[in-house]
Amino acid sequence: xxxxLPQIKHRKENLTLHPAVTVHSQTANPTSRQKKFSMPCLxxxxxxxxxxxxxxxxxxxxxxxxxxWKATIxxxxxxxxxxxxxxxxxxxxxxxxxxxxxxSCYFSLNFSHNxxxxxxxxxxxxxxxxxxxTRDLIxxxxxGLVCIHDGEGFLLWNPSIHKFKRIPSSPSSIxxxxxxxxxxGYDSVNDDYKLVSFLQFHPHYEVHIYSLKSxxxxxxxxxxPEDFVLHSNGVFLKGALHWLVHHETDDERMIILTLDLASExxxxxxxxxxxxxxxxxxxxxxxxLADLISLVVMGGYLCIYLVECRSKALIMKEYGVAESWTKFxxxxxxxxxxxxxxLSSCGKMVLFEEDSSRLAWYDLQNGTQKPVRIxxxxxxxxxxxxxxxxxxxxSLIRRRDNF
Length: 403
Known about the structure:
This protein is mostly beta strands. Helices cover 14% and strands 39% of the residues. The chain folds into two domains: 14-86, no CATH class; 90-387, Kelch-type beta propeller (Neuraminidase, 6 Propeller), CATH 2.120.10. It is built from seven helices and 27 strands.
């Protein structure tokens, strides 16, 4: 007898577990006939637990098994459960190399959080025709989704399942105002992905937010800090987007600006300059401090790091607490364009992108480095690390299958 997957969203009175079996909820008095079917119920729940462990690619294939499987895998709640398990177990990571020159493809690495120093790169054709992909178009990424901006509009792209959705630019942008910086993240309170775009109207920014759930743009409050300017797109952590911003005339005055995607309210953290004693002295006459310091998320923590010179990084151990900034790593040697990407599965090593052309593991305990030797990579690239997901698996566009 065929076992169907249970529906994710339970009804109040009945839970459908099998085409021929309906088991009443615990509020009803069980009869001998209902008890007879307790084993299929347990088996179905076990099956769901197993299926959430599968890779996004496998789940797409399993949708062809039956209508019940397809309906369950496409259920938004199943996508959330699959993502939560993947994040918790650090499974199904995606490592994308985005070329510096426009191309109709991208590169994917097939090694995960296991400290490996070798691997295979896959060259995969994009599922859309235009725009050609380049690292300058990356607007943000979150939960396996990548947001791309080409000046005319946006794309939400899930490289794990080769699906994408086109999003037009906000109305103000269409009327002669170019989007500058912004970010992309997930509002878990409202189960909604949101895209934030700052439009510059001197001397202030206008903040536009796109909601995937409503498929519409809206304008919220103006950019709050006076005389502060953005210089990069935001990073997502704990339901909020974060940007490094500096004062228009004094780049030694920097803050971390945050936007809570649920409440859509701004707040800010101070940048702990006192923990970078060499930063001011290393500043050259032609470089801004904004070019020497950057912001990422590492192992679930907000991380500030020096891009070059004697590289150093801090992590905020307790989110929102300025006193909790702690040294993450520090190099004695001079480095250039060092970008931390992800922690190893044991948490003792960090994968770095070096000079946009190489990858290497750095041991946090003994300070040694292991270069990653992978052939077939583009010469110059930007690296995206995230977790594979099945978000956007609904009735969105898919042009090509290049798994």
